[in-house]
Amino acid sequence: MLVQRMDSREVNDYIFMKLGTTYDVDGNAMDGYDTIEAYMRNCDENGLGYTWFSTESLHFGMAKKKVSYYNALCQAGEKVKLLFAVGEDVNDIVYSATVLEIVSERDAQPCPGEEGSEPEEFQNGESAKIWIKIMDIKNEQNLKADMLRVRSTDANLKQVISNSQFHFGYVYLPED
After folding, report:
1. In this predicted model, what pLDDT tens digit does every residue of 58-117 receive, in sequence order?
2. Dihedral angle of Cα 93, 98, 103, 109, to the nearest 10 degrees
3. Cβ 35 vs Cβ 22: under 8 Å
4. Which of these, 104, 101, 95, lies nearest to 117 by C-alpha position?
5. What is the rounded distance in angstroms from the CA atom of residue 98 to the CA atom of residue 74?
6. How far apart are CA 68 and CA 102, in angstroms?
7. Taking the CA of residue 47 as centre, how many other CA atoms within 13 Å lie in the half-sphere pointing to its CB?
8. Most Cβ neighbours (<10 Å): which of 30, 48, 113, 132?
9. Dihedral sign, CA of 113, 136, 16, 100?
10. How far apart are the C-alpha atoms of 138 and 70, rounded to whole Å?
11. pLDDT at 36 over 60
12. What is the pLDDT of residue 100?
């Protein structure tokens, strides 16, 4: 039983985020690559080994059942991944990260982590409805958008993000 708890497997249920242009505390535009680089740098340099990613993509935040579901998987030692796509002419998954915890509320909240656990580019009192504690942010080599399906509609992820119809949600890899 102890061996089973120590063994973590990646679940076939991913959280997906398409990154567009965002702005740092000084008003400078950051594309998806700049944004992820800020989170990677923060994770490497803050001494915590993780960072908090925030988004306002869902009007009411994540559903409480989804938050509970993913947090339970994380607490059970399962590996939950957050997949990041970039827009512009790419519209594909470029990065992934391991999810440690999710905090989501109907109203925007400040970062739930300790000081320094979010990139300095966004630390000026940022509030968000969804906060995802992540680590191990890296270039994603194996999963591509055309391989994945949107959980709620079963639509091909590449098609829906290319049409700008999907920015945040839940995706899976169909079994052959």
Report:
1. 778 899 999 999 999 999 999 999 999 987 778 899 999 999 999 999 999 999 999 889
2. -60
3. yes
4. 101
5. 9
6. 8
7. 3
8. 132
9. negative
10. 20
11. yes
12. 97
